[in-house]
Amino acid sequence: MKKVRKYSIPLALVIAAASCGEAPQNATNPQSTTDPSAAIVPAPRINSLEISYEKFTLPNGLRVIVHEDRKAPIVSVGVWYHVGSKDEKPGRTGFAHLFEHLMFNGSENYNDEFFKPFELAGATGMNGTTWLDRTNYFETVPSNALDMALWMESDRMGHLLGAITQKKLDEQRGVVQNEKRQGQNQPYGKVWERMQKAIYPTGHPYSWTTIGSMEDLNSASLDDVHQWFKQYYGSANTVLVLAGDIDAKTAKEKVEKYFADIPAGPPLIKKKAWIAKREQSRREQMFDRVAQSRLYKVWNTPNLDHEDAGAIALAASVLGDGKNSRLYKRLVYKDQIATSINVGLHELELSSIFPIVANVKPGVALATVEAAIEEELQRFLAEGPSEEELARVNMSQYASYARNLEQVGGWSGKGVILARGELYLGNPNAYLEAMDKKQSISPQLVRAAAQKWLSSGDYNLEVHPFPEYSVSEATANRSKLPDTGEFPSVPFPELQTAELSNGLKVVLAERNSVPVVDMHLQFDAGYAADQGKKLGTSSYAMSMLKEGTAKLSALEISAKEEILGARISAGASIDSASVRLNALKSNLDNSMSLFADIVMQPAFSNEEIERKRARWIAGIQQEKTQPVQMALRNLPPLLYGSDHAYGVPLTGSGTEDSIQSLTRDDLVSYHKTWMRPDNATLVVVGDINLKELTQKLEQHFADWQAPKKSLPVKNLAQVSHPGKTRVYLIDKPGAEQSIIIGGLLAPSEKIPQREALHMMNDIFGGTFTARINMNLREDKHWAYGAYSFLTGAKGQQPLLVYAPVQTDKTSESLQELYKELQAYIGDSPASEEELQKIKDNRINELPGRFETIASVSGAISAMVTNERPLNYMQGYAEQIRDVNLDSIHALARDTMKVNKFTWVIVGDKSRIEQKIRDLDIGSVTEIEINEPSNTAISTTER
Predict the structure, then answer these.
(1) Which CA distances in Å does 392 have to 318, 388, 621?
(2) Number of C-beta neighbours around residue 77 at 10 A
(3) Residue 323's pLDDT band (cuts 50, 70, 90)
(4) pLDDT tens per residue across span 660-691
(5) Nearest by Cα to 570 from 599, 600, 605, 612
(6) What sequence ranges are listed for the domain Peptidase M16 N-terminal (predicted)?
(7) SS3 track for 904-927
(8) Closest CA to 604 of 660, 545, 688, 529
């Protein structure tokens, strides 16, 4: 047991005594007066405040502070756990406070309301509170009831879980949620939730409120209760303070009796300072049912044991504590533009919160109040406080503490001061010592700290009264939807064509609505060109085009784009690779020159290749951890086989091995082989005519010639369906849900019935109201969404069925998808109503579909890629209207081979495998993920 001596440090304070009376007139200037004189009178020395205590620690880690005060036969008991809302995790907020409520619902050996024996014993000041950094429980009892109090506190510390039932959890959950509603129902009641989220970065332990969110409270389970208790409510994470009619010897005997057998709890990770100072100002506005506008001006300032903490606390007091504070005198007393103002500094373990809060006087603009605050703040930052101001606020704090020392417990008595000091700073008298140290902080130090922490990074939240609105008498007929009438005809732009001397084909759609020209240069290449080569070559080569040319570096290209207002991009898809320029008409020549240089003269420098390589491989590694990408990397080789151009990862990124081995020669070879004028079409949309366009193209692409070597031919041969359904599992241990992706080869985008094919899919799974989404999402609630889609390809294209579902419903969801597929080609085919809905949507969306240059360019590019006639869109509406139900049924029967699907399911194998096997829909094979390629896939069949 450690005995702590009393200590006394002189407290030197000065207080001002201002004289009163009329000042004499200045003889030389009758209109000038002198200010009232202020005589500074030194105050007598005042002894430091002190609390005597003794401290000991039990073998189980429980720290005990004992203060003896015999003036009344009472003892204050305070139990402080070093856990608060900062120890929660996103998605589990509000749990510290919810648990505090549960601590009052009985323990294993006293399974009744906690207050009952205390009420009978005449306890006072009894409660529990939760804050960001801690949770505490306290009561003051007559000395004769101390054993009862210690028994009760130790019983819930060491013997709680057996008494916590689901009923009690649900009851207190409801109580806390009503407490939250009650708080939010008060004026300005939603401010702190908004503010904490705004002033701290995502994931910061202070970025959520102590009471938590409704959603997180709803998700709290009994398992969460047990885990929280076991992790944080051990004796080694606790400070017990006994203050009043007790001595240390007696206290030690009693504490050992009741608390020594309680486990210490596990080692804990203690969060350290994370001030998260902001440098930029930020402003938000909200409305509430309040009478006055209010301004919150907030900074993140140093945590409570930071070297600047004392100076910042003094700055807060000088600015906003009491009627003589600078802000009160200016805004409330002198200018009378605010009805109240204060600086409520919250000193915390990780970061303190420094808010200036002003209630704006009705009829005064909030901007007027803010300007006055800013003016006073800037004056303070420039001049700092005066000696008199510091003396005044120091004396005010001294007096407050002096009055608190009268009480042994309650909300602010000696027991609280000792507990806070020990819990946060390992020193029971830390707060009184800090108060003493403030006496020696100079005005210069306060000014320096204020300049450092308050000169930038302010968050400003305006809260305004919600206006009183009124509604008029209803006049609309709500019994039926209004008739939409005739939809306007929106003709697709007329397309003009040309061919340059080097063989480059050009398609132009003139659009003069804005002075912009969009050029989309596309090559018949894409991921399919990687077949037989290093996977990822197409995507990597296209990504390198802007990383430097023979003339320009990557940064110089970027700078030229910015100065010209141009946008240039490059990329690849399954069938094509493209480079795109979007240019201002006024800078078209210079923009086209840059565009041509990027297309024709990429440097493919080894330095830039290496700079990108590590990032690219990291991206592949990320794909191999993301369920959807895991499936899309492995499904195409399973559908097409190893020698087909489409039998490559559908992400186009390649593999770690292929990208690691990729060389400059590979990229140069790709560029020479595929990026040639006789393998390209340039789609142009915008403010230019065909004659001007061809002249500029001949000028800028004059040196671009097709090589003599003929183009390679991509293997897009027809692939047969597998003999039966196949299921491939990719194990993702601990996965929160399973990703189901089914693949089947469907007809090419080039077929005449292309629109009917897509409409057939839309009915089944291509829209929100399609069959499988209504089943798995709206009816079963097993998935956030379930869809099917055609990926688009010149050869056979994959029809994919996609459903991310909860793990325990994986096999059931797969079974439902099978039922829907079988019904669609069987006894429940597409209906006339379903088809008409899709038709109406496709036709009626036309007025807004081609509003932008980019949308027109995209439509033309799709025509080019899939070899459709260039007048395809002219009869589009009629083409949609002519699709009949028989053709939908026929396409569904011919396409949706239910028993030929290849399913890839990513999920926790240990939880889903057996039930999938029990469905008996086909072979079940586990894919061992390493490096999927277009030549081999490692599988383990069981």
Answers:
(1) 9, 6, 62
(2) 26
(3) confident
(4) 999 999 999 999 999 999 999 999 999 999 99
(5) 599
(6) 63-198, 506-635
(7) EEEECHHHHHHHHHHHCCCEEEEE
(8) 545
| Separation of alpha carbons 457 and 110, rounded Å | 51
Q: Residue 759 and residue 772: Cα distance in Å, rounded?
A: 15
Q: Which residue is it, tokens 């002219």?
A: 874
Is the full-model pTM beyond 0.90? no
Length of the chain: 942
Cα–Cα distance measured from residue 115 to residue 123, given in angstroms and rounded to the nearest whole number: 9
Q: Which H/E stretch holds residue 570?
A: strand 567-572
Amino acid identity of 896? Answer: M
- Residue 31 contacts by C-beta under 8 Å, 6 or more apart in sequence? none
- Strand spans (E) along 24-99: 38-42, 54-57, 63-68, 74-81
CB-CB neighbours of 57 under 10 Å: 14
Which pairs count as long-range contacts for 169-176, CB under 8 Å and 24+ apart, including other chains? 169/102, 169/220, 169/221, 169/222, 169/225, 171/105, 172/98, 172/101, 172/102, 172/105, 173/98, 173/217, 173/218, 173/220, 175/101, 176/94, 176/97, 176/98, 176/101, 176/211, 176/212, 176/217
User: Are the beta carbons of 96 and 229 closer than 8 angstroms?
Assistant: no
Q: What is the pLDDT of residues 133-152, one digit of tens each?
A: 999 999 999 899 999 999 99
d(CA 865, CA 794): 8
Domain ranges of the chain: 54-259, 275-412+428-465, 495-700, 726-846+874-941
Residue 629's contacts (CB-CB under 8 Å, 6 or more residues apart) are: 622, 623, 651
Secondary structure of 419-474 in HEC code, one letter for each residue: HHHHHHHCCCCHHHHHHHHHCCCCHHHHHHHHHHHHCCCCEEEEEEECCCCCCCCC
- Name the CATH architecture for the domain at 275-412+428-465: 2-Layer Sandwich (3.30)
Greatest C-alpha distance within the chain: 115
Q: Which residues does 365 contact at the CB level (< 8 Å), separation at least 6?
A: none
**Residue 926 pLDDT more than 70?**
yes
From the list 652, 700, 638, the residue with the least C-alpha distance to 536 is 652
| Alpha carbon distance 297, 189 (integer Å) | 17
**Alpha-carbon distances of 67 from 24, 190, 419, rounded to whole Å:** 58, 40, 11
Give the three-class secondary structure for 811.
helix
CATH of 726-846+874-941, one of 3.30.565.10, 3.40.120.10, 3.30.830.10, 3.30.200.20: 3.30.830.10
Q: Is the pLDDT of residue 856 over 80?
A: yes
- Domain 495-700 belongs to what topology? Cytochrome Bc1 Complex; Chain A, domain 1 (3.30.830)
Rounded Cα–Cα distance for residues 329 and 291 (Å): 23
614 burial type by CB count under 10 A (0-12 exposed, 13-18 middle, 19+ buried): exposed
**Distance in angstroms (rounded) separating the CA atoms of residues 356 and 380:** 14
